[in-house]
Each structure stands twice: as C-alpha cells, then as structure tokens.
Amino acid sequence: MTERTLSGIGVTPLSGVGTVVWYRPDADLPEPPAPEDVDAEAELARFEDARAAAEDELEAERERTAERVGEEEAAVFDAHVQFLNDPQITDGVTDAIEGGLPAEHAVQETFSEFVEQFENMGGRMGERADDLRDVRDRLVRVLSDGERVDLSSLPEGSVVVAERLTPSDTAQLDPERVAGFVTVTGGRTSHAAIFARSLALPAIVGVGEELQSVEDGTEVVVDGESGDLVVEPSDERKEAAAAAADVDVRRESVETADGVEIEVAANIGTLADLGPAVDRGADGVGLFRTEFLFLDRESPPDEDEQYEAYVEALESFDGGRVVVRTLDIGGDKPVPYLDLPDEENPFLGERGIRRSLGPDADLFETQVRALLRAAASADGANLSVMLPLVSTVEELRAGRERFESVADDLDAEGVANELPEFGIMVETPAAAFMADRFAPHVDFFSIGTNDLAQYVMAAERGNERVSELGDYRQPAVLRAIDATVSAAEGEDCWVGMCGEMAGDPDLTELLVGLGLDELSMSAVTVPQVKAAVAETDTADARALAERVLQADTKAEVAEILTLEL
Fold first, then answer.
1. For 312-329, how does the pLDDT look when each residue is reduced to its tens digit (9 = 90+)?
2. 427 annotated as belonging to a binding site for a ligand
3. CA distance linking residue 533 with residue 256, whole number of Å
4. Which residue would you say has higher pLDDT here, 506 or 241?
5. How do residues 23-76 score in pLDDT, each as one tens digit?
6. Residue 263: pLDDT above 70?
7. Among 80, 105, 493, 498, which one carries the catalytic annotation?
8. Phi and psi dihedrals of 308, rounded to 5?
9. Active site residue 191
10. CA-to-CA distance for 119 and 125, rounded, in angstroms?
11. What is the structure's pLDDT at 562?
12. Residue 197 annotated in ligand binding
C-alpha cells in the first residue's frame, strides 16, 4: 500500500512505530424485557450492589494509577466516585428502574442523558463527558457480568486506536508494550492526553472519522509532536521515527551554541513525579504544585508533613533549584475540607494568593513555616518560593511581609529558618502590565502561559470552541511575555516559564530569543528541550523573536516559526 498521512493533535513530542490494535469496548445491550416483567425491587438491589463493586474498583484503580502514573492523574478517579454517588444521577437511575427498565438499561439511559448535557457545554465541562462514560461503562459491565478488555497486556509494539480512551483505559497502558495511541476524538487537555504525557507515550488525539479507515494490523508511525499518523510508512519514515524516539538524556546543565546557560526544569505535582524528572535529566523543579499535597484527604497536611515533602524534593536534585508554588486552591481545584464559595466563574474568583491572604490565611502560614524551615535544611539554599495569581502590588507586598513575619516568629521560637528566593507567577494581564513595578520586590518571575493565554485572550483554556484564541502563539500573549521579560531587565530578577509553552521544543529558540532564563515543563519533554537549547544561537534567536513580535496574527507567527524550522 502507498504511504498516507492522517492529521490530528499531537500531545507528546515523541514518536513511535507499531501495529494498530483497535479498541472497541462498547457493546450494545439486548432489548430490555417488557416493563411488567421487571422486578423493580430486585433491580434496585442489583444497582446498589453494582455501585458498591464499582466504587471498590475505582479505589483500587486510583491507588494503582497514583503509583504508576502520579497522584495528579489519579485524582480523576475521585471525580468518578462523585459521579457514582451523585444524587441527580442515582435518582435518575432509580426512576428509570421503577419505570420498568432493568438496572443496566436504566444506567445506560440515565448516564447517556448526562453525557449529552456535558458534551453540549464544551470546554472543561465537555471533557467531563468521558468521565461519565467511564463510570457508565463500568456499571454496565458489572451489571452484565462482562469481561473488561485488558489493555495492560497487549502485544509489544501495539498502537492502540480507538474512538476515545477514558481515564480507566489510558491508565492501563504499559509504555513497555505500547508504542503509542491514536483517537478519533479528544483535545490537548483531555485525560487521555494528560496521561500520555505522564506515561511518556507518543499520542495523537482528535484525528476524526477518517481514522476509522485504518484497519487492525496496519503498521503506522505515531508522531506525537506534529500530530501526523503515517499509515503504511516507508522504511525511511520508520527509521526517522525510531531515530527521533532515541533522544539522549542530558544529566548536565545545557548551554546554547554560543555559551548561554538555560535552566531546563520539570513541573511536578507530587513526590512521585520526582523520579521521572530526575530520570529525564531535569536540572531541578521549576514548578512544584503544592496543592496536590492538600487534595484527596480529609484534613490538610501539617507543618512537619509539608516540611518533609519540600526537603525530599530538594534532596532529589544535586544542587538543582526547586521552585515551590504556594497553595493555589480555587478555580478547578476544589478541596472538600475548605469552605470554598460556589462561584459562577471560579477562574475569575477567589483563588491563589487571594485565598492565602484571606480565608486560607492559617493554611498559608503553616505552609510558609514549613517552607522557611526547608530553606534552612542541608539543601535549602536551592529553594525558591513563588506566589500564584498575583495581580496587585498590595498582594505582592502582603505576601512578602507574611514570609518576613513568619521568619520573625520562628526566630523567636528558636527554630532554624531562612528566607528563600522569592518570586511570583505572571499569569494575569495585570501582572504583565505591572511587571516593572513588581520586579524591584522579587528575585524572579515565572510565567504561567496556560493561565496567561486564558486571561489575556478571555478564552477558557479547556474550551475547544475557543482553543484558537487561547493559543499561546497569539501575538497578544507573546507581547505579554516580552513585556514581562523587559520589565526584569536591569533588575536582579531572573525570568522563567512553567506553562505548557515551555515544553514545546519547536518554540525553544523563540523563548531563548525572548530572554527566558529558565524553562520548566512536564518531565517527558526535558530531553527534547535541552537538545533544542544546545542547537540555538542566541543572536539568531533574538532576531527570530523580533520578527515574531512584529506579527499581527497567529497565522503570521506560525508562518515565521515554520520558515525558521
């Protein structure tokens, strides 16, 4: 057959060569019996038993996923338990059973209604439809005594192809056996995409219905960077993909071709992420999302538990910097033991530093105490701390004063402590506009491009309907980055980036040209970004940045970057 290419959305900068294995888990239920033949009481009992069995499965699956993939990814199964016990859903199933449907048909019908509602919402809510499908299919399987397809023991070199992959599906994939996966639906922020990055799997999502034409057993190349699925690839194409997959891991720090050192660090959510970050050659941690220490528990971690976590992160890197972000609760990160407000638009509400200086002041003080103690530990000189969602000078000053006040308290108690390097996240237009006023008060800025793009462009980051607007290659976003870097010039203030943009090796030269000192990303992309840094000449990079900053449209930006590549 002749080589052909299908295009989708690449979600990992990795390539794989393998053989297609179609995964089609959906099985149609038989026609239900007549309503008068259904014993509603018995069916309700079956439904309750199935819910209990499904919850046991979810708890076990969550534990396995936390160990294999990471705590952040495992948290999705907590949402599944919530759906399993959601009164609106369970009441709907109960009504359907009492209306004459067997339990499995009642589950199928009720959940499908909610799936459709979520899909119509779009964005992050639309992506929750896959969570509902996952719970629905689990319940139907339990009720039907069905066998679950075991994706963990596929033949080596398999490329999993599916309409979609749920979190439960993706968590089963073994990177030692699976060469990649490709789906008809999905976006960069889907659970499948997130798991792919965590598992370091080549992956393409959102290929569309044309993917259905690719048959079982077909040899393919999965290019998770370009988003191209090459069907029946030539020998040359396979060799190129294999060579691209064989990326050297650089343990040492990296310099540009003309000798400018750029720090390449990893983003982590939990201590389980430290090992992969070290294995992939990260220089340190550029973003430690500490809120994941606070999630999925009945009470917050105490000072000692936090202290030990921060010290463990510092000890994992030999002299590498560890940048800790203080608690960023709110938005899409609910915490059950906190009285979080029910806000119409939580991303524009009480989150990040707004809560730390307000209703979560006690939690914030405990966290600061642990951080100051960690800064005085054997490796503590490499600790940096930054505040999330700072938008005003008042917030910055109040946050810094809180650190100094806690240091005074620890001194009075005779507890060893040090003030760490202090910085803020730049993720709002206000922070970018005010960066010149912030710079004298901080040691560093860390640009969070995921939120910065969302807020600059007024486009929700998880909403596929406005994904073109929310792209970090939009000229307005690039100018906000440039303004931040320019504001730090002449001040004793370095500038890093910890958003998704930092992990795109195709943009490394541009980011060096814009003047970034540090880039932090998912551990999977560290080797590719280090390789890109080593190939970059800073004079050429600055010239590229100047051309890009003159662009009026995202298309012009893309054209300039494509010509450069």
1. 999 999 889 999 999 998
2. yes
3. 5
4. 506
5. 887 667 889 989 888 999 999 999 999 999 999 988 888 887 777 776 667 778
6. yes
7. 498
8. -65, -35
9. yes
10. 7
11. 86
12. no
Distance CA 375, CA 317 (A): 15
DSSP sequence for 428-467: SHHHHHTHHHHGGG-SEEEE-HHHHHHHHHT--TT-GGGT
Measured distance CA(171)–CA(512) in Å, rounded: 35
Cβ distance 431 to 424 under 8 Å? Answer: yes
Domains in the chain, please, with CATH?
4-25+149-245 (3.50.30.10), 35-144 (1.10.274.10), 260-422+500-562 (3.20.20.60)
Active site (annotated) includes residue 498: yes
Return the biggest CA–CA distance within the chain: 81
Residues 247, 407: contact at Cβ < 8 Å? Answer: no
* Percent of the chain whose pLDDT exceeds 70: 94
Grade residue 416 by pLDDT with cuts at 50, 70 and 90.
Answer: very high
- Give the HSE-up count for residue 102: Cα atoms under 13 Å, Cβ half-sphere: 13
CB 206 within 8 A of CB 186: yes
Task: Sheet containing 178-183: give its strands across.
Answer: 4-7, 228-231, 219-223, 15-23, 158-162, 178-183, 203-205, 9-10
Compare 534 and 60 and report the one with higher pLDDT.
534
Cβ-count burial 130-166 (b if 16+ within 10 Å, e if not): bbbbbbbbbbbbbbbeeeeeebeebeeebbbbbbbbb
Q: Considering the entire predicted model, what is its pTM? A: 0.74
345 is in an annotated binding site: no
Q: How far apart are CA 118 and CA 111, in angstroms?
A: 11
CA 368 distance to own-chain centroid: 25
Question: Which residues make beta-bridge pairs with 144?
Answer: none
Q: To which residue do tokens 């309907």 refer?
A: 465
Name the DSSP class of 51.
Answer: H
**Mean pLDDT, the chain, as a whole number?**
89
DSSP state of 249: P
Catalytic residue among 80, 105, 191, 493: 191
| CA-wise closest residue to 365 among 377, 355, 356 | 356
| 289 annotated ligand-binding residue | yes
Is 308 among the annotated ligand-binding positions? no
